[in-house]
Design goal:
By secondary structure, this protein is α+β, with helices and mostly antiparallel strands. It folds into two domains: 106 residues, Ubiquitin-like (UB roll) (Roll), CATH 3.10.20; 322 residues, Creatine Kinase, Chain A, domain 2 (2-Layer Sandwich), CATH 3.30.590. Strands 9, 10, 11, 12, 13, 14, 15, 16, 19, 20 and 21 form an eleven-stranded mixed beta sheet that branches. Strands 1, 2, 3, 4, 5, 6, 7 and 8 form an eight-stranded mixed beta sheet that branches. The chain is globular and about 65 Å long. The N and C termini lie far apart (67 Å).
């Protein structure tokens, strides 16, 4: 273990950093940490002796946001709710400075001695494996927006409705943030750096109370795991300060929080997206294939990057969230933005919301790139102006109901992901759709109580 990195074997961390508690966790369908809390020394002894064979109720891979199980499928009541075995990555335990005296051991769900086929990490790993077999190796950077609110639901008598954004007005690129927001950013950067997860930048965004955090490039799975830990840290640190960090895609009308995935492709000779800008050719032929694949596949796999009813309320006209499936050079009105220069040229996929599981969202992106490269697809011309006004470009799905109907019947989705994965993710998405279908919202009452 490197001397300056707080990762390694749990017993090393116990001795060097005074670790008392270890969280043994996996990542659920929503991109959250789920697991158990152990006394550190007891866990190490039991793992070393073989007395502990970690298991967890398998339904954590298939429940909705409220941990409600589905009515059918391998994680339903019909299944009997059996356990799945966990394979701990004990060599890469990580200190969590935002939880004093605590380390994390991530574990992969396995079934029959193999990675569980419906675990988010397995879905992503399968797409990565298939792409790498074609030659390109992806590197990934993630930037995410979220909203900070003053107070927590426990502190405010009216619950979530009583929360007020921590910043009023448009704070995009503002460097005069309120003290509480500055302190939150400082603590977030410090704690993430202490966990070996350095932040590239933190900035104010245009929505009231909105913040954006950008991370450096890295391996795809590492980038996704880092993002899951970042969300855990942001929520914990915010609550300690009497704040709430929300990663809803549309936490209020007119506010949308995205999770932009920056992807570059490499081989043994280096980056593969840049071409010959000296002759007016900036994006390589392979890059164009990748763009075409993304614009073909992503609308078919929308529940992977927009998994909830609320996710689709982010896609509004001139909101900086795309409404048309178009691409362009350094064009933030497009779904796919080609950004960077020379060796740093990359594809920014702007469709996923902050609410998406990064592993599933990236799996959809990699599947799209893979199809484009394998089939040598060619995109329509790049959009140089306002993509919101390009009526010739297809619309982004307008609702979860529309997206789910397309996903469930898509032969392409089944081909790319496999029918069991499609059926599983469709069940999870349908639970959110069914949850909202029978509920009367505040907006409905406000609009119709006196007027209908």
């Amino acid at each position: 273990m490197a001397a300056d990195l707080p990762t390694g074997q749990p017993e090393e961390l116990i001795g060097r950093f005074g670790i008392e508690t270890v969280l043994l966790a996996t990542i659920d369908a929503q991109g959250r940490l789920k697991g158990k809390e152990y006394d550190a020394r007891t866990l190490v002894e039991r793992l070393r002796s073989g007395a502990l064979k970690p298991e967890m109720c398998g339904y954590v891979l298939g429940t909705d946001l409220s941990m409600t199980p589905p009515d059918a499928g391998p994680f339903s009541w019909q299944s009997g709710f059996g356990d799945v075995t966990l394979l701990p990555d004990v060599e890469n335990a990580r200190i969590l400075p935002w939880l004093p005296g605590t380390a994390l051991v991530l574990a992969d769900p396995v079934s029959g001695g193999c990675p569980h086929p419906l675990a988010p990490g397995t879905v992503l790993a399968e797409q990565l494996h298939r792409l790498v077999r074609l030659g390109p190796v992806p590197m990934v950077g993630i930037e995410t927006e979220f909203v900070l609110y003053e107070g927590t639901a426990r502190d405010v008598a009216s619950g979530w409705r009583g929360l007020r954004p921590a910043v009023g007005g448009n704070g995009d690129y503002a460097l005069d943030q309120p003290p509480a927001v500055r302190e939150f950013g400082r603590r977030l950067r410090r704690h993430l750096a202490g966990a070996g997860l350095p932040v590239e930048a933190v900035k104010g965004e245009s929505g009231h109370g909105q913040v954006e955090v950008t991370f450096p490039y890295g391996q795809a799975i590492d980038a996704c795991e880092q993002h899951v830990l970042f969300k855990h840290a942001a929520k914990t640190i915010a609550e300690e300060q009497g704040l709430t960090a929300s990663f809803m895609a549309a936490p209020s009308t007119g506010v949308g929080s995205g999770m932009h995935l920056h992807v570059s492709l490499h081989d043994c000779d280096g980056p593969m997206l840049a071409a010959d800008p000296a002759h007016g050719i900036e994006l390589s032929e392979l890059g164009e294939h990748a763009v075409a694949g993304l614009l073909t596949v992503l609308p078919e796999l929308a529940p992977l990057w927009a998994p909830y009813v609320n996710s689709y309320k982010r896609f509004a006209d001139r909101s900086f969230a795309p409404t048309r499936l178009a691409w362009g050079r350094d064009n933030r009105t497009c779904a796919v933005r080609v950004v960077g220069h020379g060796r740093s040229l990359r594809l920014e996929v702007r469709l996923p919301g902050a609410d998406a599981n990064p592993m599933l969202a990236l799996a959809a992106v990699i599947a799209g790139i893979r199809l484009g490269v394998a089939e040598k697809l060619t995109p329509l011309p790049a959009v140089g102006g306002d993509a919101y006004r390009r009526l010739d470009a297809p619309l982004v799905p307008r609702s979860l109901e529309e997206a789910l109907a397309r996903f469930e019947t898509s032969a392409l989705a089944g081909e790319l992901l496999g029918e069991p994965v499609v059926a599983h993710l469709a069940r999870v998405a349908r639970m959110d759709l069914d949850h909202h279908a029978a509920r009367v919202t505040d907006a409905e009452v406000e609009r119709g109580l006196a007027q209908a």
